[in-house]
Specification:
Elongation Factor Tu (Ef-tu), domain 3, 12 strands
Length: 181
């Protein structure tokens, strides 16, 4: 489990034949889970400041392609603070940046994801826990503080860029429970 509080923006060293390698100051062990742009991946090699992950076709079918840099968050340990919201690292799909103007980032979103979005609710964008600041029929908006723009990949997003999205798991549970009532 994760919280969407990114610990590092890491350069991608390579991505070939399903093996993603990033340069990182993190020190996980082989077998540890790391959210990479919001996708829960398992560390398969960790040497000399580089982390390697095997990425399955299932992940590639649901997620955006990895760019020049990625957001990294290690899985929560017992006693770690819950600073963001519950994030599983199981993205629900992708959206597309419509605009990035000042503090506001607007993301076009498929209806199957947008139905779980509520103003002042939580969403993870490329693994970053954010609060929804506005909604329209086909998009949501978030406000990015300077710290988030500077320490994650979100500050470099441009219109047309894809992003990984994970809705608040609690919204999915509520829908499931109420549909059975």
């Amino acid at each position: 489990m994760f919280t969407g509080i990114v610990r590092e923006r890491a350069p991608v060293a390579s991505f070939e034949e399903g093996r993603l390698v990033v340069e990182s100051a993190l020190a996980p062990r082989v077998g540890d889970s790391i959210a990479v742009d919001g996708v829960c991946l398992t560390v398969v090699d960790a040497e000399d400041g580089r982390l390697a992950f095997d990425v399955l076709d299932e992940t590639l079918a649901r997620a955006k392609q990895f760019g020049e840099a990625v957001n990294l968050e290690p899985a929560l340990g017992a006693g770690d603070p819950l600073g963001g919201h519950y994030v599983q690292g199981h993205i629900d799909g992708t959206g597309t940046v419509r605009s990035s103007e000042g503090e506001r980032l607007t993301i076009e979103t498929p209806p199957g994801i947008l139905r779980y979005c509520v103003e002042k609710g939580s969403i993870a964008v490329d693994g970053v826990s954010l609060t929804i600041a506005g909604l329209s029929e086909d998009a949501f908006a978030v406000a990015l503080i300077r710290h988030t723009r500077e320490t994650t990949t979100l500050g470099t997003l441009q219109p047309g860029d894809p992003v990984n999205l994970e809705v608040d798991i609690l919204a999915k549970y509520v829908e499931r429970l109420t549909s059975r009532a």
